[in-house]
Design goal:
By secondary structure, this protein is mostly beta strands. The protein has two helices and 18 strands. 5% of the residues lie in helices and 34% in strands. Strands 1-5-8-7-6-9 form a six-stranded antiparallel barrel. Strands 10, 13, 14, 15, 16 and 17 form a six-stranded mixed beta sheet that branches. It starts with 5 loop residues before the first strand and ends in a 17-residue tail after the last strand. It comes from Paractinoplanes pyxinae.
């Protein structure tokens, strides 16, 4: 069966805060979150997830929609590698690609070249050509949140007996924080590590754009523990001081470990880069 593409409407998000701007970190200290949403400048694919003094910072822009149901639809249907086109404002006609998504109310992360980011304003309309949800590449391994036409750019190979992915590291599902129990088509999973604890968890040198495997995790429906299963995902945003939060992993592949095999590469790993997205930022 063929999958279909859909044109979806989103708008560049603007950061929002309640009357008090403070969140509380793992030690009970208040802080003001910076870089959580909107147009984030100076954060790029390949940066370390703890390189920036920011909270959940992602490269590029985040998209939302004024209608909450449409916002959920945009988040659920947009996939890694989908084309995004600016349809208004000073950057009209310029193109980027979807990198990932985040949960809560729902937001889509789109990467553009730096010169486009400098032109964009909150509220600028963006068309996302959504394609990928529902695609089947293997009878034993589920593909989600990923345009199947983008797979050949990634360190992922599909065979008759399953899927093999090259990853920076594999971690236990006990590290999965915010996003657990949520529908993975609309959420990412925060890995509960900090700059101080990442090395002990096997995530030293973790970069935006890396692929990481999480063992004993089934995300095909709501994300949750399942012994013997494995999820491979893409790191789409940086760390956070909040307890239960951390670098964000957007699920891409899920299946039994014997069908979803991995090659752990450590510092030799090369995940999603600007070149994969057809431009250099």
């Amino acid at each position: 069966m063929k999958t279909v593409a859909m044109n979806l409407s989103g708008a560049v998000e603007t950061p929002e805060m309640p009357s008090s701007p403070y969140l509380v970190d793992v030690d009970g200290r208040p802080y003001v979150p910076i870089g959580t949403a909107g147009i984030v400048l100076g954060v790029r694919l390949g940066d370390g997830v703890f390189d920036h003094d920011a909270d959940h910072a992602a490269p590029g822009v985040t998209l939302s929609h004024t209608d909450q149901a449409a916002r959920h639809g945009l988040t659920a249907l947009a996939c890694l590698g989908n084309e995004a086109v600016v349809h208004g404002g000073a950057a009209a006609g310029r193109r980027g690609r979807v990198l990932g998504k985040r949960g809560e109310q729902g937001r889509v992360i789109v990467v553009f070249p730096d010169d486009v980011l400098e032109l964009l304003l909150p509220g600028d309309p963006i068309l996302v050509r959504a394609h990928g949800q529902g695609a089947v590449v293997s009878p034993s391994v589920a593909l989600i949140n990923t345009d199947p036409d983008f797979l050949d750019r990634l360190p992922i190979s599909v065979g008759n007996d399953g899927v093999r992915a090259s990853v920076r590291a594999a971690v236990p599902s006990a590290l999965a924080g915010n996003g657990i129990g949520r529908p993975a088509h609309m959420w990412d999973l925060d890995l509960q590590v900090t700059a101080e604890t990442a090395a002990a968890a096997g995530l030293a040198g973790l970069l935006l754009g890396d692929l990481v495997a999480v063992d004993d995790l089934d995300v095909r429906h709501n994300a949750g523990y399942r012994r013997g299963w494995r999820t491979v995902g893409l790191i789409v945003h940086g760390g956070s001081p909040q307890p239960g939060h951390g670098p964000g992993l957007m699920p891409m592949l899920c299946g039994p470990r014997e069908a979803l095999t991995i090659d752990i590469q450590g510092d030799q790993h090369r995940g999603v880069t600007a070149e994969h997205l057809d431009f250099r930022p």
